[in-house]
Amino acid sequence: MANGYDDRDGFIWLDGEMVPWREANLHLLTHAMHYASSVFEGERAYNGKIFKSVEHSERLLKSGDYIDMPIPWTVEQIEDAKYAALEANGLKDAYVRVLAWRGAGPDMGVAAARNPVRMAVAVWEWGAYYGDAKYQGAKLDISQWRRPDPATIPCFAKASGLYMICTMSKHAAEAKGCSDAMMYDYRGYVAEATGANIFFVKDGVVHTPLPDAFLNGITRQTIIGLLKARGIEVQERHIRADELVGFEQCWLTGTAAEVTPVGQIGDYTFEVGELARSISEEYEALVRA
User: Fold this and answer.
1) From the candidates 92, 158, 170, 176, which is the catalytic residue?
2) 96 pairs with which residues across the strands?
3) What's the CA gap between 208 and 200, in Å, rounded?
């Protein structure tokens, strides 16, 4: 069995220094551990180049602003840190995790404006997020939890606190033998999976939920661009639950998921069809170009 993520060789960029992996530790009273005051980015490097790296760094800073946690690093400094971490670990094909959080400081209550904002970059080798499902079609559960109303939480931030219901949903899905779970939004419209956006195909038209209550993923935007460049109609709209029965193909998109076809969601089944396969192949070619 592989060692845990806390017990590995290598280095983690931490607050401007390269720290041996096992020594990149935090105090128990770190604010983020108690109040979820943290944001992050998940990225992939292919052949030594991080795909859409600057866009991810810009989104990290925006996420910090959304949760009232200004991050004291520039896009350029974040870029330097990511590539330094890749170099220190001798990796060219890797997953890149950038995390910013409120650390331990003079405040230990809900408010923590005086506590320092810290940042780390960890990189590691990571294959297909859904394993063989990437090629055979993932099986998804339907979550009992819903993506929240934007009036209740900053849902357009990639904030750690927003993933609590995702973890719960994925645990429930895995217990049923599924790879992931699809979530509805607070109104009952189809939203996304626990860590990936979702697309459907019907009669040659691609349908994807309007991102007005969840994160508009960078991979999602990339795939929409590829589809439109082919002349394929893409409808970004609210998708009702009763429409699932009429869709022919389905796939997920995300930095970790890349493009993963879906074969089943609950009792609904989908063909792992030509468009799902070809758009996955086109995305693979793009990220490695």
Assistant:
1) 158
2) 43, 123
3) 6
Mean pLDDT for the stretch of residues 124-133: 82
Residue 93: CA atoms inside 13 Å, Cβ hemisphere, count?
7
pLDDT digits (tens, 9 = 90+) for 142-193: 999 999 999 999 999 999 999 999 999 999 999 999 999 999 999 999 999 9
Alpha-carbon gap, residue 48 to 175, rounded angstroms: 36
What ranges in the chain are assigned the alpha helix state H?
Answer: 31-35, 53-66, 75-88, 133-136, 164-175, 218-229, 274-287
What pLDDT score was predicted for residue 2?
Answer: 66
- Enumerate residues 6+ apart whose C-beta is below 8 A from 12: 18, 19, 21, 24, 85, 120, 121, 122
The whole-angstrom separation of Cα 196 and Cα 215 is 9
Show the domains of the chain with their CATH numbers: 11-124 (3.30.470.10), 133-287 (3.20.10.10)
**Catalytic annotation present for 82:** no
* Residue found under tokens 């493009």: 259
Q: Find, among 239, 236, 248, 244, the residue nearest to 275 by Cα.
A: 248
What pLDDT was estimated at residue 80?
98
pLDDT beyond 50 at 1: no
